[in-house]
Specification:
single chain, about 525 residues, alpha+beta, Methyltransferase, Cobalt-precorrin-4 Transmethylase, Domain 2, Heat Shock Protein 90, six-stranded mixed sheet, four-stranded mixed sheet, 16 helices, globular
């Protein structure tokens, strides 16, 4: 890790910055939180807000106190590898930053006050007694990816794959040294070194020789139901094997060939193509399944089931840790932290804990239902509904319709045998979350953002804000979070885009960071 690497990193699930002035007991909370989650890196000597480089060389006593934190302030001791990164501090002196590399632990760690923290995004969440108990129960699951694989030897590892990964990590030693010196990649038995489950799944020459059902299976059904026997309606059935990366790449690539497209003439006179499911959703829903499945369950596989009206992905294992169907959008816990960090290194995962939320946001931006997660037996099921599940606005109310039982002649809609007159000009699809507010008359919004090079998902989010927020309504990032069901960081980025394009003006006396949309006759 170099100073250039450190300065461009954003705080998140596995990275945090701390001033040299931090108190040992406060640092302990972050150390404990990362050890209880996916591990991570803490840089000391770099201020949190302004990223000023303080360094640690001229604060020997404070540095020594902080180095004792994993031993003296964490129960049990947290395993930490320390690195000193050379730098120039804010006063122009040669100095060093201290980097604590924290490994994910198979035990639950607490601070000196017997408080347990878990890393959730860029925060360290203090757990309740019930959450702590759940974490203690689930920690046993982490061991599986580090366990011995019967019959596997180091000859079953493709060292070229390890070499590529080591290069991306900028690890200075050989691929074999990396496997030996980093927890979870090898297991020692009777003086011999063997690959762990994670090593076989990520770097194995033939992973399915040892994990026979560790693959992704794509099944395409005709219609909206899964039928068996004489009525069986399977029209495609394909299996994707190899390492976890191979499975993801092959499955996503094939899924892309099965997606329906709808082309129409847009407002600017150019043809626009809408896909059945957003590109990010198609990839992330499979990445999530491969990353978090329970690989100790050997009797089944990950199944991607495609129906006419929905996409269903089933993954073996219950939801891990503190994650439940009702909090999965904003709660993160890795059953397989070694696999998760590997996928993040290769860019399959942007930030831990943001994938599900972004999937839901992109679906909602298109007026579709957010991804639905549920437990079915020992499987986790993720469901994405496509545009055949429509809602229309009639008389101010959202009416869900079944496209097979709806006849539209342009002036009336026949629903279950009754004719309902509608104003075709004012009928519109409703976004998930309820009726929209009075729509602002800004026909140039789409063109403006397209000319500025913004992508369609971002444009749709901004359009939703214009439709939902009234002309004179004061708003900030918090309201944007509520409307888009997005993270605080994404809400702030969207607000910045609105400012950059001159579409909002600040409001004085309403608090920091408050704005209103510019009036209809403003020059935008």
């Amino acid at each position: 890790m170099t100073i250039k690497d450190i300065l461009v990193l954003e705080e998140g699930q596995t990275f945090d910055r701390k001033s040299i002035k931090i108190k040992p007991k406060d640092l302990a909370n972050t150390v404990v939180a990362m050890a209880n989650a996916d591990g991570g890196d803490i840089v000391i000597g770099l201020t949190d807000s302004k990223r000023e480089i303080e360094g640690v060389d001229y604060e020997t006593e404070k540095t020594n106190d902080l180095l004792r934190v994993p031993f003296d302030f964490c129960i049990p001791t947290v395993q930490v590898r320390v690195e000193r990164v050379p730098c120039k501090d804010k006063d122009g002196r040669n100095n060093h930053l201290l980097v604590m590399h924290i490994a994910p632990s198979d035990r639950v760690h607490a601070n000196q006050s017997d408080e347990v923290f878990l890393r959730v995004g860029d925060r360290s969440k203090k757990l309740t007694f019930e959450e702590r108990y759940t974490l203690m129960s689930d920690k046993g699951e982490i061991k599986y990816e580090e366990s011995w694989v019967r019959g596997a030897t180091m000859k079953d590892i493709d060292m070229s794959l390890v070499k590529d990964y080591v290069g991306r990590l900028r690890y200075g030693k050989s691929p074999l040294d990396f496997l030996k010196e980093n927890n979870g990649y090898t297991v020692e038995r009777e003086g011999e070194l063997y690959p762990s489950a994670a090593s076989i799944l990520l770097f194995g020459k033939k992973p399915q020789d040892f994990f026979r059902r560790a693959y992704v299976r794509f099944i395409r059904y005709e219609g909206t139901e899964e039928k068996v026997g004489r009525e069986m309606n399977v029209v495609k059935d394909v299996i994707f094997e190899g390492t976890i990366r191979d499975q993801i790449d092959k499955a996503v690539s094939f899924l892309n060939t099965q997606i329906k497209e709808h082309s129409y003439l847009g407002e600017d006179g150019l043809f626009v193509t809408d896909e059945e499911y957003p590109e990010f959703v198609r990839k992330e829903i499979i990445v999530n399944a491969c990353c978090h499945r329970d690989y100790s369950i050997s009797g089944t596989d990950i199944q991607v089931k495609m129906f006419d009206n929905r996409l269903v992905v089933e993954s073996p294992g219950n939801l891990p840790g503190l994650v439940r169907p009702d909090n999965i959008r904003h709660t993160h816990f890795s059953r397989n932290p070694i696999v998760a960090r590997y996928l993040k290194t290769y860019g399959y995962v942007k930030e831990f804990g943001e994938g599900v939320d972004r999937m839901c946001s992109e679906m909602e931006a298109l007026g579709l239902q957010p991804i639905q997660y549920r437990r079915v037996g020992f499987m986790v099921q993720a469901v994405a509904w496509n545009q055949t599940n429509e809602s229309i606005d009639i008389g101010g109310e959202s009416v869900k319709i079944n496209p097979k039982s709806v006849n539209i002649d342009g002036e009336s809609v026949n629903i279950d045998g009754e004719s309902v007159n509608i104003d075709a000009k004012n009928a519109r699809r409703l976004p998930k979350g309820g009726p929209v507010g009075q729509k602002l008359e800004k026909e140039s919004i789409s063109k403006l953002f397209r000319r500025a090079g913004y992508r369609e998902p971002t444009i749709k989010k901004i359009q939703l804000l214009f439709e939902t927020i009234d002309a004179n309504e004061v708003f900030g990032s918090r309201l944007i979070m509520q409307i888009l069901n997005c993270s605080d960081s994404l809400a702030r980025k969207i607000l910045a885009k609105l400012r950059d394009e001159g579409l909002v003006e600040p409001v004085t006396g309403a608090g920091k960071g408050k704005y209103i949309f510019k009036s209809q006759d403003a020059d935008v």
